[in-house]
């Protein structure tokens, strides 16, 4: 599919989605959200897509936030609808049955940090910078940032970042648990692809079940242990479980089919 604000490249089962508004530091406007939802439909439907990388165009920014030019003149109801659209889109990323990883290649501020946090995990280039600068604008994060930052870095660190609008670099983000690894800018995509190639070689239904079970930790409406028990049981009805255990006993590499 062709997009105006995204570039997509499918290679070896890995779909790289590039937010492509480099002249505006890839700020998330209405069109980006519409197209992100279209690409999420494509990810869900296409068997050719096994996993996804989200990154930003250019060398300066992953995403520098929600597009501030769209905030002018909104009333309370309109602003709430804007936040809800962002939250719903990012919840689709978080709950995707296929792994979605953020490759953070520069500024990840406001909605950009929130987009990265909605991904299943994050790899950062050395020049990445993270922050929730909304209080500088008399605002608060609206796309899940107050919730996911607390989940990822803990309440004390999250509070300091939310209240001060302080930006942190890639190394501090790693120490805080916000990112898993830091690479050079040049090796960011290649390194992220290598991680996903490993994940893509595993049983897809088991991958999807791990995502559902781990996400249940933060969903008060779910009993995560009960869900884990159920998913564990479901795995015994899959051909991949039979293949995985048989291949282990036969000392060969398993070939998974996603059934
Ligand atoms: N929304 C809309 N436009 C944005 C944007 C955003 N969140 N972030 C950057 N841009 C635009 C700038 O307005 C500028 O556009 P112009 O060339 O038409 O004037 C262009 O992107 C380049 O940004 P600029 O500010 O000139 O780059 P810089 O290197 O001086 O500063 C940042 C980089 C990231 C520090 C700065 O752009 C910034 O603070 N952005 C806003 C971050 C923010 O508050 N995000 C949360 C939004 S809720």
Structural write-up:
The chain has 259 residues and is an alpha/beta fold. The chain folds into two domains: 6-199, 2-enoyl-CoA Hydratase, Chain A, domain 1, CATH 3.90.226.10; 203-249, Lyase 2-enoyl-coa Hydratase, Chain  A, domain 2. 45% of the residues lie in helices and 16% in strands. The chain contains ten helices and ten strands. The strands form two sheets. It has a six-stranded mixed β-sheet, with helices on both faces. It is globular and about 60 Å long. The model has no long low-confidence stretch (mean pLDDT 98). Bound molecules: coenzyme A (COA).
Architecture blueprint of SSEs:
Blueprint: E1 6-11, E2 14-19, H1 30-45, E3 51-56, E4 61-63, H2 76-94, E5 100-104, E6 107-109, H3 111-118, E7 121-125, E8 129-131, H4 145-153, H5 155-164, E9 168-169, H6 170-176, E10 181-183, H7 188-200, H8 204-215, H9 224-235, H10 239-249
Parallel strand pairs: 2-3, 3-5, 4-6, 5-7, 6-8, 7-10
Antiparallel strand pairs: 1-2, 8-9
Helix pairs in contact: 1-2, 2-3, 3-4, 4-5, 8-9
Bound molecules: coenzyme A (COA).
Core attributes:
259 residues; alpha/beta; 2-enoyl-CoA Hydratase, Chain A, domain 1; Lyase 2-enoyl-coa Hydratase, Chain  A, domain 2; 2 domains; 4-stranded mixed β-sheet; 10 helices; 45% helix; globular; binds coenzyme A
């Amino acid at each position: 599919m062709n997009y105006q604000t995204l570039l997509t490249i499918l290679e070896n089962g890995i779909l790289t989605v590039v937010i492509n508004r480099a002249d505006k530091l890839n700020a998330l406007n209405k069109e980006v959200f519409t197209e992100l939802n279209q690409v999420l439909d494509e990810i869900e439907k296409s068997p050719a897509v096994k996993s996804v990388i989200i990154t930003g165009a250019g060398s300066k920014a992953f995403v520098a936030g929600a597009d501030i030019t769209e905030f002018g003149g909104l009333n309370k109801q309109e602003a709430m609808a804007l936040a809800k659209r962002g939250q719903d889109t990012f919840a689709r990323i978080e709950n995707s049955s296929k792994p979605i990883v953020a490759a953070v290649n520069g500024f990840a501020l406001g909605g950009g940090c929130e987009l990265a946090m909605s991904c299943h995990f994050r790899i950062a280039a050395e020049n990445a910078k993270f922050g929730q600068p909304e209080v500088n604008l008399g605002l608060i994060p609206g796309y899940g940032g107050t919730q996911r930052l607390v989940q990822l870095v803990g309440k004390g660190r999250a509070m300091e970042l939310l209240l001060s609008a302080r930006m942190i670099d890639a190394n501090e983000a790693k120490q805080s648990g916000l990112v898993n690894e830091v690479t050079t800018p040049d090796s960011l995509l290649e390194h992220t692809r290598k991680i996903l190639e490993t994940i893509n070689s595993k049983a897809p239904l088991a991958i999807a079940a791990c995502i559902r079970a781990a996400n249940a930790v933060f969903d008060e409406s779910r009993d995560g242990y009960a869900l884990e028990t159920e998913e564990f049981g479901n795995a015994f009805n899959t051909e991949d479980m039979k293949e995985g255990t048989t291949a282990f006993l036969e000392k060969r590499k398993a070939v998974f089919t996603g059934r």
